[in-house]
């Protein structure tokens, strides 16, 4: 009886230790991306100050009037980041004033104009969410999907083709059909590289990169010929109203219900990865293929399904752009969403919630870039610099650990009686 009580006590201690380790790891995984973003913004502020003409001028007589130098540097940083926030979210005081006018008079045009900045940021964030989720799934399965950009293109092509070529359907059939077409096209584009790897041993990185170029040239061909609106206009026919994803508010507010679809999909993927047997098999395959195979998991099947799912979700990024924003397919309609998705998956630690937050961050950064340049004179390329620094810090967390003196928590749990316990039998 005593041994049984001691065993139960040890099991409780181990359970407590496991919870502590899990909590520490969770805190570490949250802290690293947050500190990476913060540090990148600090470095961005230094770049803003160092490239500002007034700061450079006052630096010439720094020792005579250091206050002028610091004032010029602070003003440059404040103006740039304030303009970026205003471009991404809008002006709070003007939004409140426009909201009061709408309440008293019913006039909504001014309010919609003031809400336009946050709407544009959400428009940019939406394809980021889909593309980032797609890449995160492939990473969880141990597959490196560099082909999200190509999958996005073919998803857009398939969706716009079904949208304009299939006629006479009601919106509740036409719109889901067009979305499903984009999902299937992206899934096929993601399946091909994994199939080639399984059959020939060709690495998925090379395969997915090459599939990108095939998708780009296929788009050029189709929009210049079979899918062209006219011989002299390399764009597709317009998407009819029955296949358009509706917006939340009237124009000029362009954020649409594809954002809700993306958030719902992120929740579904979270359940799939962390609350299902199939998700466990995906993560096990990604962590250790040999051990997974030894445990009876068909790693080839899991990787293939994961890559197809990854491609399908990335394809939905293109679907949302053509059905929800552009309402047609144009050449080079994507501004690098698929390539940025790799960074989003890394920044979000391949977790659906993390990917959503990273997508919103990148969307709002890009949304505020134009106003930052027009008002503060800071080049939009600074946003790319900040994003690149974030990626470096997340990909090499040891840098953040050394800057902020953070120790990575150990995954090892010392069980009672393990370390040379003389009383252990």
Q: How is this fold's topology laid out?
A:
Elements: H1 2-51, H2 53-59, H3 66-89, H4 92-105, H5 109-140, H6 148-165, H7 171-200, H8 204-224, H9 258-274, H10 277-287, H11 289-294, H12 299-326, H13 337-347, H14 352-376, H15 381-395, H16 397-404
Helix pairs in contact: 1-3, 1-15, 2-3, 3-5, 3-14, 4-5, 5-9, 5-12, 5-13, 5-14, 6-7, 6-8, 6-12, 6-13, 7-8, 7-12, 9-10, 9-14, 10-12, 13-14, 14-15, 15-16
Structure in words:
Helices cover 75% and strands 0% of the residues. The protein is mainly α. Helix 6 (148-165) packs parallel to helix 8 (204-224). The chain has a domain at 125-245 and 253-377: ABC transporter involved in vitamin B12 uptake, BtuC, CATH 1.10.3470. It has helices at residues 2-51, 53-59, 66-89, 92-105, 109-140, 148-165, 171-200, 204-224, 258-274, 277-287, 289-294, 299-326, 337-347, 352-376, 381-395, 397-404.
Helix content: over 70%
Number of distinct beta strands: 0
Q: What is the SS-derived class?
A: mainly alpha
H/E element order: HHHHHHHHHHHHHHHH
Count of helical regions: 16
Query: Taking Cα atoms only, what radius of gyration do you get, to the nearest Å?
Result: 26 Å
Taking all residues together, what is the mean pLDDT? Answer: 88
Q: So what's the overall shape?
A: globular
User: Cα distance, first to last residue?
Assistant: 17 Å
Which spans of ≥5 residues are poorly predicted at pLDDT below 50?
418-425
The major β-sheet equals:
none
CATH architecture annotation of the domain at 125-245 and 253-377: Orthogonal Bundle
């Amino acid at each position: 009886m005593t041994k049984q009580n001691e065993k139960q006590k040890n099991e409780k201690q181990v359970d407590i230790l496991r919870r502590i380790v899990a909590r520490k790891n969770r805190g570490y995984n949250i802290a690293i991306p947050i500190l990476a973003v913060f540090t990148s913004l600090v470095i961005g502020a230094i770049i803003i100050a160092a490239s500002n003409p007034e700061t450079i001028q006052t630096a010439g007589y720094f020792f005579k009037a250091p206050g002028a130098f610091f004032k010029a540097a602070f003003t440059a940083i404040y103006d740039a980041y304030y303009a970026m926030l205003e471009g991404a979210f809008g002006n709070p005081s003007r939004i409140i004033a426009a909201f009061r006018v709408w309440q008293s008079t019913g006039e909504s045009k001014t309010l919609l104009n003031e809400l336009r900045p946050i709407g544009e940021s959400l428009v940019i964030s939406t394809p980021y969410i889909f593309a980032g989720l797609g890449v995160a799934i492939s990473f969880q399965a141990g597959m490196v999907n560099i082909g999200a950009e190509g999958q996005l293109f073919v998803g857009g092509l398939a969706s716009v083709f079904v949208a304009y070529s299939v006629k006479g359907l009601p919106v509740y059939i036409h719109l889901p059909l067009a979305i499903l077409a984009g999902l299937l096209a992206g899934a096929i584009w993601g399946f091909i590289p994994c199939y080639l790897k399984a059959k020939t041993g060709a690495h998925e990185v090379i395969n997915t990169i090459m599939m990108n170029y095939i998708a780009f040239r296929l788009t050029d061909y189709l929009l210049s010929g079979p899918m062209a609106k006219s011989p002299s206009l390399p764009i597709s026919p317009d998407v009819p109203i029955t296949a358009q994803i509706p917006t939340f508010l009237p124009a000029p507010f362009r954020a649409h219900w594809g954002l809700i679809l993306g958030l719902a999909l992120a929740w579904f993927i979270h359940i799939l990865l962390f609350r299902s047997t199939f998700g466990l098999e995906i993560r096990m395959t990604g962590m250790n293929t040999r051990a997974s195979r030894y445990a009876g998991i068909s790693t080839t099947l899991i990787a293939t399904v994961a890559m197809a799912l990854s491609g399908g979700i990335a394809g939905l990024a293109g679907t949302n752009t053509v059905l929800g924003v552009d309402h047609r397919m144009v050449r080079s309609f994507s501004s690098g969403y698929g390539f940025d998705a790799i960074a989003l998956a890394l920044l979000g630690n391949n977790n659906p919630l993390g990917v959503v937050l990273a997508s919103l961050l990148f969307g709002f950064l890009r949304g505020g870039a134009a106003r930052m340049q027009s008002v503060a004179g800071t080049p939009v390329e600074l946003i790319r610099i900040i994003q690149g620094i974030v990626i470096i810090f997340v990909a090499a967390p040891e840098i953040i650990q050394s800057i902020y003196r953070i120790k990575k928590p150990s995954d090892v749990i010392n069980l009672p009686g393990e370390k040379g316990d003389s009383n252990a039998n």
